[in-house]
Amino acid sequence: MNAMLASPTRKRLQTALEHASGDKRFKILEVHMKKHQFRHDALIEVLHKAQELSGYLEDDLLLFISHKLKLPPSRVYGVATFYHFFTLKPQGEHTCVVCMGTACYVKGADKVIAAVQEHTKIKPGETTSDNKVSLLTARCIGACGIAPAVVYDGTVTPRATPASAVEQLKKWTAK
User: Fold this and answer.
1) Would you state the pLDDT for residue 11?
2) Start and end residues for every CATH 3.40.30.10 domain found in the chain
């Protein structure tokens, strides 16, 4: 696999492997990969464990996983960016995920997201400067019957309104 990597990527991989040698999280992750016998089809489980250990999936971590599972970096990155529950940036203390699926959108998700953006002064995919709140969107969370749905710190909230979203944000930022 190393022969297939371009020179800059090979250097980054070497740096990642050197960094990994002294980091306990990488050792724990490697044990987790070994438990799955370094199988390619365990990629999502490995990414979940990596994010659990580090809080987010940084480039060096993705290259380390790519190397250990003998997968192309593009495959690992592709999976990490496809699923909304993986993040490539550090997240805030709290997360607000607004579902943008058809049912949620039709019932006002766009107004909810606009109110959250107005209150926090950030766009989806960003974190406030004080690292209190991260704003995310999801294509669909499968909660169409309670649209528009918003997920606050992992808890699904039904029939969100712009006012209810701002109220939740005020609770987080008042602390």
Assistant:
1) 66
2) 94-174
Q: What is the pLDDT of residues 7-16, one digit of tens each?
A: 666 666 666 6
The model's pTM is 0.64
Look up residue 68 and give its DSSP letter: H
Closest CA to 96 of 44, 47, 49, 132: 132
Instruction: Give the dihedral sign, CA 88/89/90/95.
Output: negative
C-alpha torsion sign, points 151, 154, 158, 160: negative
Write down the CATH number for the domain with range 94-174. 3.40.30.10
Q: In what order do the strands lie in the sheet with 126-127?
A: 126-127, 133-138, 94-99, 150-152, 155-157
Q: Six-digit token pair at 18?
A: 């050197």
Q: List CB contacts of 31: < 8 A, sequence separation 6 or more.
A: none
Under DSSP, is residue 129 helix (H, G, I), strand (E, B) or coil?
A: coil
| Conformation bin of residue 91: beta by default, left when phi > 0, alpha when psi is -120 to 50 | beta
What is the band of 6 on the pLDDT scale with cuts at 50, 70, 90?
A: low
Token pair listed for 130: 């004080």
